[in-house]
Amino acid sequence: MGDVRRSILRQYCRKAEAVAQVDATFLAATRPVQVLGQVFRRATAAYAETGFADEWQWHHQSGPAGYEPREYIAASESQDVVQAGQVSAWNPSIAGTKSEDTILVTAAGPEVLTAIDGWPLLSEAVGNAEYARPTILEVL
Question: Comparing 3-7, 29-33, 88-92, which segment has the lowest mean pLDDT?
């Protein structure tokens, strides 16, 4: 593999790790009785913590799902309270990378509904919990 290709791969791997951390932050924060705007603000702070402070502005981050792909797009001002049994689909992105799953909100934590068997995963820590988030599938 050439130097340029290795450099590009490293860049995408760094972005994939960062976006997985942001996604794990969304999952960790999406708990019953949390205000949706607070969940959103925690995730935008995670963008900054991973070195990609402004990336959240270039693509919607999503929010509660149901009969529509998204019932509405969450924002920092969102006042709705997250409920147990609710479904959410977050999709943080950093130019060229994205992480997305649909989750069921439970009191015990998020239950990922859209996991794909065999897909490579990163383990991302948020607080005392670990969240398995999808990463780049390399086909050799």
Answer: 3-7
**Segments in the chain forming alpha helices (H):** 3-29, 36-49
Report the C-alpha gap between 136 and 44 in whole angstroms: 22
- Smallest Cα–Cα separation from 126: which of 56, 53, 39? 39
Residue 105 · residue 90 · CB < 8 Å: no
What is the distance, to the nearest Å, from the Cα of residue 43 to the centroid of all Cα atoms in its chain?
Answer: 8
Domain ranges of the chain: 3-134
The first and second tokens of residue 36, run together, are 């949706």
| Beta bridge partner(s), residue 28 | none
Q: What is the pTM of this model?
A: 0.92
**Could you tell me which CATH number the domain at 3-134 has?**
3.90.230.10
User: What span, in angstroms and rounded, lies between the C-alpha atoms of 140 and 80?
Assistant: 45
- 3-state SS, residue 68: coil
What torsion, rounded to 10 degrees, do the Cα atoms 9, 19, 97, 15 define?
Answer: -30
